[in-house]
């Protein structure tokens, strides 16, 4: 087996495993994933326009408007005129929305901690930590403009 085909096999296993983990973590959320993701972006990056948020999420502005309207109705986001362009609206996370983000992250983390504790040995947990570090190394290079 050549190195390339071995790398391809490893890449496929990683892609499949990550996909399964992500889907399972999404099940732990108490709200639809598109709403949680919009809240996360706003919480991490501060106020944004609906169109800017739509670009980051790779969805249509119309879909983002529906998501933000639902979050607004629940009191998770607020809207204010953009001080630089009064025609634009900036969306931001409210205190209640920030609490939802924190609770959501904690719920997902609890599930993962429990799964690791119940399913893996100490040695396997250490190997998983090493794998996480390696994945982060790949992502650091990728985000810096590498492969």
TrEMBL record:
Keyword DNA-binding listed: yes
PROSITE patterns associated with the record: HTH_MARR_2
Keywords: DNA-binding
One Gene Ontology MF term: DNA binding
Domain HTH marR-type: 1-140
Superkingdom of origin: Bacteria
Gene3D superfamilies, per the entry: 1.10.287.100, Winged helix-like DNA-binding domain superfamily/Winged helix DNA-binding domain
SMART domains to which the protein is assigned, alphabetical: HTH_MARR
Keyword hit for Ion transport: no
InterPro entries reported in the protein's UniProt record: HTH-type_Bedaq_tolerance, HTH_MarR-typ, WH-like_DNA-bd_sf, WH_DNA-bd_sf
Name of the molecule in the record: DNA-binding MarR family transcriptional regulator
Organism for this UniProt entry: Streptosporangium lutulentum
């Amino acid at each position: 087996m050549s190195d390339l085909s071995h790398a391809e096999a490893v890449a496929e296993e990683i892609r499949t495993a990550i996909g399964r983990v992500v889907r399972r973590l999404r099940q732990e959320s108490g709200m639809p994933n598109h709403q949680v993701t919009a809240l996360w972006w706003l919480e991490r990056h501060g106020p944004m326009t609906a169109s800017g948020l739509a670009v980051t999420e790779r969805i249509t502005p119309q879909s983002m408007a529906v998501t933000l309207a639902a979050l607004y109705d629940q009191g998770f986001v607020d809207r204010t005129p953009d001080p630089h362009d009064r025609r634009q609206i900036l969306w931001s996370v409210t205190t209640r929305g920030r609490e939802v983000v924190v609770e959501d992250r904690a719920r997902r983390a609890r599930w993962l901690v429990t799964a690791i504790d119940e399913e893996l040995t100490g040695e396997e947990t250490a190997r998983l930590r090493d794998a996480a570090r390696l994945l982060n190394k790949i992502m650091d290079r990728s985000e810096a403009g590498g492969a």
